[in-house]
Protein: Lysine exporter protein LysE/YggA
Amino acid sequence: MTFEQFLLLAGAHLLAVASPGPDFAVVSRHAIAFGRRCALWVALGVGSGILVHMAYTWAGVALLLKTYHWLEVAFSVVAALYLLWMAKGALMSSKGMTLDREGGLAPGPSAAFRRGFLTNALNPKATLFFLALFGSVLDASPQGMQMLMVSGYLALATALWFVLLGWLLTAGPLGRFLADKGYWIDRVLGVFLLLLAGRLIYGLFW
Structure:
């Protein structure tokens, strides 16, 4: 992999993680509902989920998803059900959401990490995105240490971006505004998650 290819890879990845999607929604929701520390663990989970897609890509599983439609359907259905589960929780948000723990209901570090990890790892579009990205940017798949370095960079860059997002959503006037009106934002994110789940299923059959 040349340095120019790495820059293309890094730039395309940055644009992808910065665009609204399931990762953006889950980090935003936990930042607004439970504060910066919870959002940090969710962001780390999202970043770690990237490693799953890297493993899929290097092992050729992404190619299998693209080749065997039934396998992509099954994977997408599981992902859609998980998004629907998260959407239900968001839509049922109660009035008076704050940036602190809500009566001890905030997820602990392991649960927050797991939510971020599953949100990213169960997104089949991310796997196919990386397959297309590597296929269009690289002449050949990286091997050995180069593969590990690329995977580590993409996971770290993803985690840092969402850590920054969580920090911005809980900082100063913006954080106080979201603390006061956060339950409405949460419900909007719930609708967004419903749309993402619907888009997953729709894209498989039409």
Notes: The chain has a mean pLDDT of 76. The chain is about 85% helix and 0% strand. The chain has one domain: 3-8+35-96+107-205. Residues 172-205 form the longest helix (34 residues).
